[in-house]
Specification:
19 helices; alpha+beta; globular; single chain; 28% strand; 6 domains; 32% helix; RNase_II/RNase_R; Arc Repressor Mutant, subunit A; 732 residues; OB fold (Dihydrolipoamide Acetyltransferase, E2P); five-stranded antiparallel beta sheet
Length: 732
């Protein structure tokens, strides 16, 4: 318990100067001594109190605060200009997020100036009444977040305009005739920001690439990638470099490694996987324990720092998994070839090897480079069949060979033992306060033209969880090995902060509508009641909505050299070690681990923090692209089913419309309030409902309703529905 307290304190005061400033800003006309400030910040330990005294004198030296009397300090009222990042809503209102103020600064649409969503800006605050949100106007754009945008071009005789697809971009682009680049009217293009003169309503741009006709499959997929600045081809120099790599495994290289080719080793992956970056080995020991190896492709052996291959992998930072394709971090010759742990081939690995008992307790651990030989490749469905039946006979309908097959008895025994240990490790995690999110994944059956002909849901079964638990074990133990051995050594951690209290409170209010409760007394009760909530909603109409809302209460996991632990997994130490084919942070972890195993000195924290920040940002962009590709496929699927009616659940209620998620395929669309023609409806926020003024008919969050497609916009990836009626009204 003491460890967790210390960790939370570190998180809370990682910017102590800002915390001190915030106390003084809250009461700008009052002066405080260090004891009063510590009381406001709930600081009781002598070490941190001394730091507060030190920070006060530093802030005084910077002329941010003044000493009004001996040991008493007061904020110096600054001119009302601040810098921060602007977030523009789809309705055109901006909010500047700045560390200098506790509240965001609201920017009306008319005061956005030349700011675009995500830009770093200077803002003048002109409205700061007590109890009200500060308002302001943008006075300067300090730095553009992005300079390339996707949109549809309107070509005129001597110029053109590009209407940007992103609804958060509140302007179009003016394109001079010489910069149209052969684009035809109505095509989807990639436009580059050039300049924005003060006298112009729109910025000048130039067409950088023509992506194709709107609504066409390849156009829209390439538009998604272009919108987030994600590449879909490797530069020729990178491809050539990868092709020319020496891929032979020499006796000299083997001599440097632990040879584990005689250990029973196999992989378990999705049936359609093309790269295999992890394998498990299993061996019974004479003392009744097991030696279990988690073997990870040794990407860092082939991808050397400072090479074109490494530079490209770092820039990409992650593979991107769109519905119909993968945009890999590494060229195929590596990802699907030399680094993939294919069966019946010798492969170079970085391994975590543990001596464990039946309960999952670890007695010994070893980390280092190995050579392995995978005996068998299994699909999750095959491993699941072994777990469910306890036998090795695998029927043709789930076999990778599409024939009836029989698994090696030794692999059957290993799988059953590993499954048993994995379940005990998972239970132990839950006891320690881990959260159990098993959110349903939407998958599509695609025809030869990559068009969706069916929707299905992917759920995590025992075979998936078996692999997950042993990957978690390796990730956790690697991080703890470095973090505990020498906390001063710079390392790449995967961190996850505690959830936002306000969002938890909002979630607690919403779930009461469905008869559920959240206990927000302390961390232990929060995790227990969250897990109970997630378990209780399984199979219910509100499951996906509650799962989504619960995930939104969570902080975002990120990469950092500053370890604060992982809240969701309830680990004090955690990293990413197990997927270097598709994640660059794992490559960094492999390099650092080997460096420290070789007794190397600590590396630059500043350099690796920058790399962590870049990796986190690229992961966020990849996630957004993946979500957009799912939305696009959902809209495309619904466009082919416009004449059908669907049963859905009301997943959101606003003052402009009702959001409905269809139960059978998880597609979400909106019914505009103006399209409800049986009455005039108004939004009642406290009831999570819209209610008819005359009839008092209500549509509430979580209600089941029947809907029909009104409009399926492939370019905007947006669905509009017609309301048919409540489930009770339609079925009765």
């Amino acid at each position: 318990m003491k460890k967790k307290k210390k960790r939370n304190s570190k998180t809370k005061f990682q910017n102590l100067s800002q915390s001190v400033l915030n106390v003084l800003k809250q009461e700008p006309n009052k002066d405080f001594n260090y004891k009063q400030i510590c009381a406001k910040l709930s600081i009781t330990d002598a070490s941190t109190r001394n730091q507060v005294i030190k920070r006060l004198h530093q802030l005084k030296a910077k002329a941010q605060i003044e000493e009004t009397g001996r040991g008493k300090f007061k904020i110096i009222k600054a001119i009302d200009y601040y810098t921060g990042t602007i977030d523009i809503s789809t309705r055109g209102t901006g909010y500047v997020i700045t560390e200098e103020l506790q509240e965001d600064i609201m920017i009306p649409r008319r005061s956005l100036g030349q700011a675009l969503n995500g830009d770093q800006v200077e803002v003048y605050v002109y409205h700061r009444r007590r109890g009200q949100q500060p308002e302001g106007e943008i006075t300067k754009v300090i730095e553009r977040k992005k300079t390339e945008f996707v949109g549809t071009i309107q070509v005129h005789e001597k110029f053109a305009f590009v209407n940007v697809t992103d609804p958060k971009i509140q302007t179009d682009f003016f394109i001079p005739g010489r910069e149209i680049n052969g684009a035809k009217d109505g095509q989807v293009v990639l436009v580059e920001f050039v300049e924005w003169n003060d006298k112009q309503d729109s910025p000048n741009g130039k067409v950088k690439a023509v992506l194709g006709e709107p609504g066409e499959h390849n156009t829209e997929i390439h538009a998604i990638l272009a919108q987030y600045g994600l590449p879909y081809e490797f530069p020729t120099t990178v491809e050539e470099y990868a092709d020319q790599l020496d891929k032979t495994i020499t006796d000299k290289e083997i001599s440097k490694r632990r040879d584990m080719r005689e250990s029973l080793t196999y992989t378990i992956d999705p049936a359609d996987a093309k790269d295999f970056d992890d394998a498990l080995s299993f061996e019974k020991l004479e003392n009744g324990h097991y030696e279990i190896g988690i073997h990870i492709a040794d990407v860092s052996h082939y991808v050397k720092e400072g090479t074109p291959l490494d530079d490209e992998a770092y820039e990409r930072a992650t593979s991107v998994y769109l519905v119909d394709r993968v945009v890999p971090m590494l060229p195929e010759v590596l990802s699907n070839g030399v680094c993939s742990l294919n069966p019946h081939e010798d492969k170079l690995c970085f391994s975590a090897v543990f001596e464990m008992d039946d309960s999952g307790k670890v007695y010994k651990q070893w980390f280092g480079r190995t050579i392995i030989h995978s005996d068998q490749r299994f699909a999750y469905e095959e491993a699941q069949h072994i777990i469910e039946t306890g036998k090795g006979e695998i029927p043709a309908d789930i076999s990778l060979t599409q024939k009836d097959t029989t698994a090696d008895p030794a692999i059957v025994e290993a799988t059953l033992t590993l499954d048993s240990i994995a379940k005990k490790m998972r239970n132990e995690r839950m006891v320690q306060g881990a959260l159990s999110f098993d959110k349903t994944e939407v998958k599509f059956n695609l025809n030869d033209n990559s068009e969706p002909v069916g929707v299905y849901f992917k759920t995590s079964k025992d075979a998936n969880k078996l692999i997950e638990e042993f990957m978690l074990l390796a990730n956790r133990k690697v991080a703890a090995f470095i973090g505990k051995r020498d906390p001063k050594h710079t390392f790449v951690y995967r961190i996850h902060d505690e959830p936002n209290d306000e969002k938890l409170g909002a979630l607690a209010k919403i779930v009461t509508r469905f008869g559920h409760k959240l206990d927000l007394r302390d961390r232990k009760h929060v995790t227990q009641s969250l897990n109970k909530l997630l378990s209780d909603v399984k199979g219910n109409k509100e499951q996906n909505m509650v799962d989504t809302l619960a995930i939104r209460t969570m902080s975002k996991a990120e990469y950092s050299t500053q370890n604060i632990g992982h809240y969701g997994l309830a680990f004090d130490y955690y990293s990413h070690f197990t997927s270097p084919i598709r994640r660059y942070p794992d490559v960094m972890v492999h390099r650092l681990l080997q460096h420290y195993l070789d007794k190397g000195k600590s590396v630059s924290e500043e350099l690796y923090e920058e790399k962590c920040h870049h990796s986190t940002n690229m992961e966020i962009l990849a996630t957004k692209a993946e979500r957009d590709s799912i939305k696009y496929m959902q809209v495309k699927f619904m466009k082919d089913h416009e004449d059908e009616q669907f049963l859905g659940v009301i997943s959101g209620v606003t003052d402009w419309g009702i959001y409905v998620e269809i139960i059978s395929n998880k597609c979400e669309g909106m019914i505009r309030l103006g399209d409800l023609d049986d009455d005039s409806y108004e939004f009642v926020e406290e009831e999570f409902a819209v209610i008819g003024r005359k009839t008092k008919n209500a549509y509430r969050l979580g209600d089941e309703v029947y809907v029909k497609v009104k409009n399926a916009d492939l370019v905007k990836k947006h669905l509009d529905f017609w309301m048919i009626g409540s489930k009770e009204a339609v079925e009765n």
